[in-house]
User: Fold these one by one.
Assistant:
Number 1:
Amino acid sequence: MTENSFKDKTILLTAGPTHEPIDPVRFIGNHSTGKMGYALAECFAARGAKVQLVSGPVNIKAESQSINITPVTTADEMYAAVKQLAPKADIIVYAAAVADYRPKMVADKKIKKSGDELTIELVKNVDIAAALGKEKKEGQFSVGFALETHNESANAREKLQKKNLDMIVLNSLNDPGAGFKHDTNKVTIIEKDATTAFELKQKTEVAEDIVNLIWERTHG
Ligand code: CTP
């Protein structure tokens, strides 16, 4: 693979968490930092790709000039951006930690403290990878992530099929040093007919491994 390996290719990536508002000052979110998604974006850009990065709220910045960022906050906004950009993408990587549910009602004023208990009703968000998987165009290659605590392989395989993905990057929370809040990650890449396990490494090196395998599958 060289610095021109992905020349003329457009890569669409989602990264970071989504924030689902409860009222003007509160939201439901998660601990995703966006590091894995941004590392992938830099790695594709370094190999000549044009990168469309749809990013939830994060504290990191993209370095490469070839990365075009569409900042979003909620899952609905992320879906709208991805849907618009997907038709032009050769490869789509869903690295975002999308909130599965959002508050049914968003209060227009700050919710004041009252009783001892407060119940917030949640409704399901769109599954962006699954929705786009249904309209995947011929030749488009798609990659998802799965974070699992039990039955890791079986759950990842189910997601591969349900979301019509070509590849799924499995992080197990049982591996020390892997997952949220770490600069390192230990992944297993699962495909329909192959499983490739990698050692614990820096997220930037994990990104290289993922991009290398995507290159082999799309150019091999
Ligand atoms: N994903 C997505 N939209 C969602 C939820 C997940 O695009 N609303 C994508 C993620 O970016 C990731 C993959 O789907 O690539 C798997 O996400 P995960 O949260 O592990 O899977 P879920 O289908 O939400 O399953 P569960 O939370 O029940 O394990």
Number 2:
Amino acid sequence: MPHGSYRENETRIERAVSVLRRPAGLMLIPIVTGPAYLLGGETAMAIAALCFPLALALLPDETNYLRQLVSRDRVTGLAQRDDIVLFLDKALSASARNGRTTGAILLEIDNFKLLEERFDHETIEQILRVVSTRLEKTLRDSDVAARLEGATFAIALSPAMRLDLESAIQMSTRIQQAIADPIPIGHAKVYVSVSVGFSLAARLDNPNGEQIMKAATSALIEAQRNAPSAIRSYSEAMQSRITSRNSLSEEVARALENGQIEAYYQPQVDAANRKVTGFETLARWTHPDRGLIPPIEFLPALEQAGLMENLGELMVNQALSALRKWDDMGFEVPRAAVNFSNEELRNPKLVDRIGWELDRHNLTPERLSIEVLETVVANRSEDVVIRNLAGLARQGCCLDLDDFGTGHASITNIRRFSIERIKIDRSFITRIDTDSDQQMMVSAILTMAERLGLETLAEGVETDQELDMLAKLGCHHMQGYGIARPMPFDNATTWLAQQQSSNVAPFHRKSG
Ligand code: C2E
Ligand code: CA
Ligand code: CA
């Protein structure tokens, strides 16, 4: 028998006391002490009376599997994954006899990576302990809680006659509420939320403990896609979605490696004279069977595979190579823009890497625009992101605020991050030639930008009429299907050459 923790011992004593309190339990005392007296006199009777409750406490109890725990998590003192699986297996084998069913709830702290970047190791352990204590408080005595890896916790639900979807959701909500209270850390307060996935044995086909845990893990993954504070119950459709996502992740990783993913270039022009002011680099996957796949379909898979930085490296490299070639051909393309993911912006070596890439292509930093989503600037960003953006701006790169108008960036942050240009989101541009509300919104944005000394670019300009209206309102740059769609390098080069020879955009071919 393993050594029990404080809580286990406490439970055993409670159980012994509760047995003795019952009339039937009290009747047991003379049954034990009587023969002891006959055999060994008063001393034996006294020893028997003292030892009897102890023996009761140590007696195995089928319904309380806690006793069989073999391992404890070092940080929280909770059980571990194997204990949960064992508990579930035992509960399932008993359920044929007693009709009680079980299930597992998995939960993970949302955005735990961010917490880990913000706080030191000890504070993180303190947060985990607070979460585990709060979690335990919400449980019934016979539920078992465990810490899996990182910030993931699991609960094996004590077998019950009525364990349905509703009660599992209620329990998940109770857990979320208990954990949501602020956690005092020094003089500050930290707020954490958890996403929850659960799986009930009754909803699986002939399950074992391991299968219940796997199903709950799938439900947790699905909940995390809708984080923060989401709750999901396992379903079969969920499993097949996850399997197909995993296989897409593997496929997209191979595609990145063997050159199927490459940069397309969409021109940006000066609204006043339609001269090219730059190209935005947009990722495209040319799939051997499925044809051209847009980023919206493969970026989540790349993200899941942890390959966003690799994509970023590829895009920067291709953007700068394109500029180098256009320079060498004598085209005047002031800059190329690359979209930067959150993951890349967290890389402490980013500024050095970009500097090195620019040198390698023999280009000056102002030739590269870095597009940052408004949401990145709007959220309270991590120190490393702030340092990177400041470092890139100091180096001379241009910072473009992407999808402006969708992410609530404050004016303070726009200034703090040294944003040079805002890209007004397509949702404000559509039908601007006829829609007076759109005109009012864009005018307001343009006025604000002017006061702040920011350049402006309108995204998603599709028609000549929209283009004319935007030029009239005073927008500086434009990009959209109305000018040209994103194109592979060769087509973009042909387009540049046509612009140069046409009257609309009079380019000056450099000599050499
Ligand atoms: P985004 O940065 O806002 O890029 C603009 C999107 O609008 C592009 O979609 C572009 O093809 C599309 N677009 C341009 N003009 C028009 C127009 O006139 N009408 C309409 N309806 N759409 C227009 P795309 O290429 O599908 O990219 C979607 C998003 O994927 C991008 O939005 C960007 O956030 C992301 N993305 C694309 N490439 C990369 C990349 O290399 N790295 C990262 N991190 N994100 C990327
Ligand atoms: Ca963009
Ligand atoms: Ca955009």
Number 3:
Amino acid sequence: MSVLVVGSIALDTVKTPVEEHADQLGGSASYAAAGASFFAPVQLVGVVGEDFPESEFEFWKSRRIDAAGVQRVPGKTFRWSGEYAWDLNTRETRSVALNVFENFEPELPETFRDAKFVLLANIAPALQSHVLDQMRQPRFVVADTMDLWIETTRPDLEALLPRVDLLILNDSEARQMTNETSLIRAGRAIRRMGPNYVAVKKGEHGALLFGPDDFFSCGAYPLEDIHDPTGAGDTFAGGVAGYLASVSGNEVDFAGLRKALIYGSVLASFAVEAFSLNRLRRLTDEEIGDRYEMFKLMSQFEVLA
Ligand code: AMP
């Protein structure tokens, strides 16, 4: 079953202590769609300007990402620029140019409105709600957000949450949203705001998953070489939503969500191995399978005879 993905499509300029690359494909929807496409066909919704390379449409086609919901409009594509500190954990946003994003109103093609799995990648919560308004009967809605929306458009975010099945956010955002220092308390408090499930990402320290009766904690895949952490969270969300859609014969339950979190972590671990989406462009199903198995072995603490 396919996944509808909406979010930002950007041209990013990213600087790390060793490298800098300008105007590369980025944006929450780009990473999320690529991540999800390893598991399920994707219906992509977003906006780009006249300067957006045609070759990226070819890339989407090659990855069974249907870009019928990507509007190309007069003006420039959304641009974001960030710089990482030496530890590759702290990041400073250098500039943001909304450009064609400023007047963006996501409009779903008729054929997208029946999608059962939806990933609202990071964009303004009012736009995320606007997408849901156009859908007929989604079965499972995953949403991502960021500190900016918690700070500036909190009422919009609160209106969205009861319509979301799984909210994904990182540890600092969970604390910011609840004023709780304990992530356990924060995760539970966010569940009370609406979403049945909440996933809290802890960067290189893994993730936590909260459900009505269950709790799950997993590590992150230990990587030696990180080149560009940009989009790790978006790729994680894409992997989660894509995996859930791929097992859509089953009801989404906690066991499925646990596996989805591992697949999300595996996908994110590949995304950061190269700049922009370059690692995802040449990633294979076999590599994903191998890393998933490795994850399983590493997480086992009772060694079987
Ligand atoms: P992450 O590393 O998961 O925070 O995601 C980084 C991506 O988010 C970059 O590719 C940016 O283009 C995109 N991005 C940055 N700021 C925003 C924003 N305000 N709204 C939507 N996408 C954004």
